[in-house]
């Protein structure tokens, strides 16, 4: 579907753009009025000086010159103010859309977010910055193009009908050429954005896998003939492709500007030749000829400017289209844009956001929210009835029916790809079942207040989420605190993280980077487990909690989970090791085609 000149989605999602649009229209009207007054006064003075020898002194034209000076000043001030507003509005609109896109991205289902993560990173990180060109250049030119040509042509026609007719016949040529150029460049901006996204995705994958590449000795080509064994050639190809696309876009922009400039010059020349011939033969007054001649370039100037600034706006609008695809998914039309609230989502990013949102929810509890819990020992009864969630091939899980009770350790077991991790996400409310339901104490999980529900859940995803900061910052994500040494000490002892702390001189004040950079894989797992066990939460959801642990540490962790269950918590564990299955009070077999629950 073709995008309208002024995209209404932009005004729906960026409130600051609405005020700017209203002011920009008013300033465009002021610029048009000043332009017409300038032409009329200038033509009056020039014609009078030439045709009236007695009025060739400055004192004879004081009033006209004063009006001319005021009109020029008004036009300059209005143009400056419009540019200033445009730059401010551009920054505000970009910030609003980036915030809204991030908030809407957090609402995406985990699988969709995972596939669009790099695209969203490019759009939010740099793509939307191109909207500044749209608001600061293209939009003001578009408004002037809608106001100036009709007004100026009407003034020209009132003074010289023939020149007015020439402008009416020639003005459509510029939009026609603009359409032809637009058809030629259609999709170029979107292709450039796609190339940038692909390059960013490849670079992110390369950097993430650099330790493995270095371990295999493939980070740099040993010789020219070995370059095909590395990622260097692929990154170079993608970079060259992006550079070539960018240069082609710039070449088209310059060529189209030249074509529009030449066309506008020829159109003005037709008006000038017509005026000159009629002045020579005395078929028109000098004043009328000067008015038409001065105003003729102003008829084509806004249209020419629109064509010149069209390309500068396309990169930003292509990125905005990607953002709007997230803000306005086809499944649900946006009816109220007054506020877009972020709902944490996804597996890896989602773990981080869910944990942070749950921390905030502790201090913002809703007394009217359904499914309230009294304390950390009062677990929830979780019922899965015919749970089906669509996967690539069929459903995973498929027809899952089970009851996860407080005071018991329930283990979800099954082959890879059967939907065990997906089941945990459905319990959290991150995924909406395609069929069946998930209820918490008899209330559908979709009807629960998400923040209230997450404030009662301690979730350990397959890849534990550790945020940049101190170990204490990461520990307190789920509500645990170093001010409660008894519970914390027992959790650290159970997971073996106490030994890790003893090796760190700053203990809980030790700083780690993104994803726990600075800790080994096993240490990260122990910290995440200690965070879950020390959290005062009545529902524990753990996805392969004993991965990367030795057998002794695994035994202490499983004993701690059993103790939490015996204290009244609802403990749900995804696992397949015999040691994990051995502590289960209830084993739920998860399959992509059938599910069978058996008691341990």
TrEMBL record:
Location of this chain's protein in the cell: Cell membrane
GO molecular function: ABC-type transporter activity; ATP binding; ATP hydrolysis activity
Pfam families: ABC_membrane, ABC_tran
Keyword check for Membrane: yes
Keywords: ATP-binding, Membrane, Nucleotide-binding, Transmembrane, Transmembrane helix
Membrane disposition: Multi-pass membrane protein
One annotated GO biological process: cysteine transport
Spans traversing the lipid bilayer: 20-46, 58-78, 135-156, 162-184, 252-275, 281-301
One GO CC term, this protein: plasma membrane
Domain ABC transporter span(s) in chain numbering: 382-600
Domain ABC transmembrane type-1: 22-315
NCBIfam families documented for this protein: CydD (TIGR02857)
Protein name in the entry: Thiol reductant ABC exporter subunit CydD
Protein source organism: Nocardia panacis
Gene name per UniProt: cydD
């Amino acid at each position: 579907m073709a995008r309208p000149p002024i995209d209404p989605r932009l005004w729906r999602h960026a409130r600051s753009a609405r005020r700017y649009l209203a002011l920009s229209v008013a300033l465009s009207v002021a610029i048009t009025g000043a332009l017409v007054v300038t032409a009329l006064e200038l033509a009056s003075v020039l014609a009078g000086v030439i045709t009236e020898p007695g009025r060739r002194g400055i004192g004879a034209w004081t009033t006209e010159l004063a009006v001319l000076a005021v009109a020029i000043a008004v036009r300059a001030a209005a143009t400056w103010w419009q540019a200033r507003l445009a730059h401010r509005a551009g920054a505000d609109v970009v910030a609003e859309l980036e915030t809204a896109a991030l908030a809407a991205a957090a609402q995406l289902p985990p699988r969709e977010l995972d596939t669009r993560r790099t695209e969203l990173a490019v759009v939010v990180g740099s793509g939307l910055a191109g909207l500044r060109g749209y608001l600061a250049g293209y939009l003001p030119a578009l408004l002037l193009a809608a106001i100036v040509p009709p007004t100026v042509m009407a003034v020209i026609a009132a003074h010289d009908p023939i020149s007015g007719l020439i402008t009416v016949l020639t003005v459509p040529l510029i939009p026609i050429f603009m359409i032809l150029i637009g058809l030629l460049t259609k999709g170029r901006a979107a292709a450039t954005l796609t190339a940038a996204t692909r390059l960013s995705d490849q670079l992110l994958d390369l950097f993430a896998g650099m330790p493995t590449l270095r371990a295999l000795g493939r980070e740099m080509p040993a010789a020219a003939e070995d370059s095909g064994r590395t990622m260097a050639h692929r990154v170079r190809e993608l970079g060259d492709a992006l550079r070539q696309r960018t240069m082609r876009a710039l070449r088209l922009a310059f060529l189209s500007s030249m074509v529009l400039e030449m066309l506008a010059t020829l159109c003005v020349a037709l008006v000038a030749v017509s005026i000159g011939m009629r002045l020579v033969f005395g078929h028109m007054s000098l004043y009328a000829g000067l008015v038409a001649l001065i105003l003729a370039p102003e008829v084509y100037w806004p249209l020419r400017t629109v064509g010149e600034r069209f390309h500068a706006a396309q990169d930003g609008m292509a990125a905005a289209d990607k953002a709007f695809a997230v803000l306005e998914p086809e499944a649900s039309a946006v009816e109220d844009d007054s506020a877009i609230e972020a709902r944490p989502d996804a597996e890896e990013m989602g773990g981080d956001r869910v944990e942070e949102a749950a921390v905030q929810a502790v201090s913002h509890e809703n007394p009217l929210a359904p499914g309230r819990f009294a304390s950390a020992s009062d677990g929830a009864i979780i019922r899965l009835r015919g749970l089906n969630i669509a996967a690539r091939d069929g459903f995973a899980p498929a027809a899952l029916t089970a009851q996860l009770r407080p005071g018991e350790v329930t283990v979800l077991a099954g082959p890879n790809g059967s939907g065990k991790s997906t089941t945990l996400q459905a319990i959290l409310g991150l995924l909406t079942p395609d069929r069946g339901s998930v209820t918490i104490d008899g209330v559908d999980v979709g009807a629960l207040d998400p923040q209230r529900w997450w404030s009662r859940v301690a979730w350990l995803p397959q890849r534990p989420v550790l945020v940049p900061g101190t170990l204490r910052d990461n520990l307190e994500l789920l509500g645990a605190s170093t001010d409660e040494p008894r519970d914390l000490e027992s959790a650290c002892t159970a997971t073996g993280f106490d030994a890790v702390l003893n090796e760190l001189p700053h203990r809980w004040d030790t700083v780690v980077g993104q994803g726990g950079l600075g800790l080994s894989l096993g240490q990260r797992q122990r910290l995440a487990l200690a965070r879950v066990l020390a959290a005062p939460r009545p529902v524990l959801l753990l996805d392969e909690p004993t991965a990367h642990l030795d057998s002794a540490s695994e035994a202490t962790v499983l004993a701690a989970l059993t103790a939490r269950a015996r204290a009244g918590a609802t403990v749900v564990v995804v696992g397949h090791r015999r040691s994990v299955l051995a502590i289960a009070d209830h084993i739920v077999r998860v399959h992509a085609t059938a599910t069978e629950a058996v008691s341990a």
